[in-house]
Write a structure and sequence with these properties.
Length: 55
């Protein structure tokens, strides 16, 4: 029973660096996608010749 408790406290923190790396990669991919979208001409984003924005 005590080895189960010790393994929990050891394996838990060892997972955190992996979580940080995953968040970093997701953020990097999202930033690349955002840069691609922001580089598009506005009429290309809307799919028509006139640029209108409605909220």
């Amino acid at each position: 029973m005590s080895s189960l408790i010790y393994s929990f406290f050891i394996s838990g923190p060892l997972q955190e660096p992996g979580n940080v790396v995953n968040i970093y990669r997701e953020t990097k991919a999202s930033t690349a996608n955002l840069s691609t979208v922001m580089a598009m001409p506005l009429d290309s984003q809307l799919g028509r010749g006139q640029a209108t924005i409605s909220w």
